């Protein structure tokens, strides 16, 4: 199995999450049409890695593109966006869309599932599709009614059902937002909607007091589901996006066992502070190898970056929050 991209914690640092020194790994102009490439998903695939990338074009239209990498660092992203076709048995309208952004990707049972924010009927909701090979892509029904964003699937069924986080929202930049969880027996009909976490009450943990949303696919550990998520504070110059973590009960992930009060990563470097939307770190994917975890995040809505951590250290840190 290909090793994940990895760098040890810099000497002298005691950060629980540290940045890859060669960030950003994907520049905004990496394909001919792109204005920016960020908030993207990567998975193990074949002998290496594949990904689904959010590339906004020079009209600043949002769409998602497939890409491939041998080492997880250097990526070949297709120059044309993914064309989904309605999956066999689906109503052809499921493949209609106005825009697509912020993809997540996960292997469940026999295929890679992709979720993203899907412009459907002019409104954002959670698009769902799958692929076996990152060449052909099939779309199924949107998971929820608009308005919704940050749909993130768990990597396995729980109690027989598929499970997905989402964040009910509005048609704009949404000055509120909780993480909810829903279940489906068939990836079409979603229900049993339950609240998982709300923003914190100001000033307990101010970086996450405006809204929160799910990030990468949850990681199964012996102690619970480890989830990285984004939290937002409204400052006098706009939203600031940071990353935190929580540990959720394995059988009932609506139960929050531990939650970060400090952030794990906040916009601080030039590539996180300067970009199309300043001060954004937006985690969307992880690769793991034993205890090592590499997090892929979008920086300033402009480029793709990596950070690293040890899963066991994040869990120990969470227990002290
Ligand atoms: C959200 C989405 C994200 C983006 C974030 C910060 O509404 O558009 O893709 O990273 O805003 O601009």
CATH topology: Tachylectin-2, Chain A
Small molecules in complex? beta-D-mannopyranose
SSE string? EEEEEEEEEEEEEEEEEEEEHEEEH
- Number-wise, the strands total 23
Terminal CA distance reads: 35 Å
Number of discrete helical segments? 2
What's the helical proportion of residues?
under 10%
User: What is the CATH architecture assignment?
Assistant: 5 Propeller
What is the highest CATH level, the class?
Answer: Mainly Beta
Number of domains: 1
Instruction: Report the structural category.
Output: mainly beta
Please state the average pLDDT score.
98
Rg computed from alpha carbons, rounded to a whole number of angstroms: 18 Å
Report the CATH superfamily. Glycosyl hydrolase domain, family 43
Fraction of residues in β-strands: over 45%
Approximate shape: globular
Low-confidence stretches: none
* Largest beta-sheet characterization: 6 strands, antiparallel
